Amino acid sequence: MIRNSKKEDIINIMDIWIRSNINAHNFINSNYFYDNFEFVKESIQKSEVYVYEIKDNVVGFIGLEEGFIQGIFVDEKYRSKGIGKKLITFCKGKYDRLSLNVYCKNKRAIQFYKREGFKIYKKMLEKENNEYEYVMKWQR
Fold first, then answer.
1. Rounded Cα gap, residues 32 and 87, in angstroms
2. Mean of pLDDT values over 71-95
């Protein structure tokens, strides 16, 4: 089930966020994610966030800001079960256009977004990590 996040979801959300980032971005020093943990936690609590719940347990979430996907994360045990697709589809029902940035080295995520109809619009350098990312967009 997809629903708006609640204040009490933050512990599960942040647990999924840190583990997923470290797992998906092994080309970035994990200290980067730990160093930004509190900033992200505060930002998430102020953002538009939807969670995917199974038996009252948050197993994934998507965060947006005016149609820009800040991030989509699914607990490792629940990946490849259609949860990310359901979260994207839910957001496609709310917005006519969606965009996001994804690291070029995150091949799995790029393929996922392409399957969901996103197209690469440009490549740019993300200065904090000196890594290239793609700007990807979808529109109805």
1. 26
2. 95
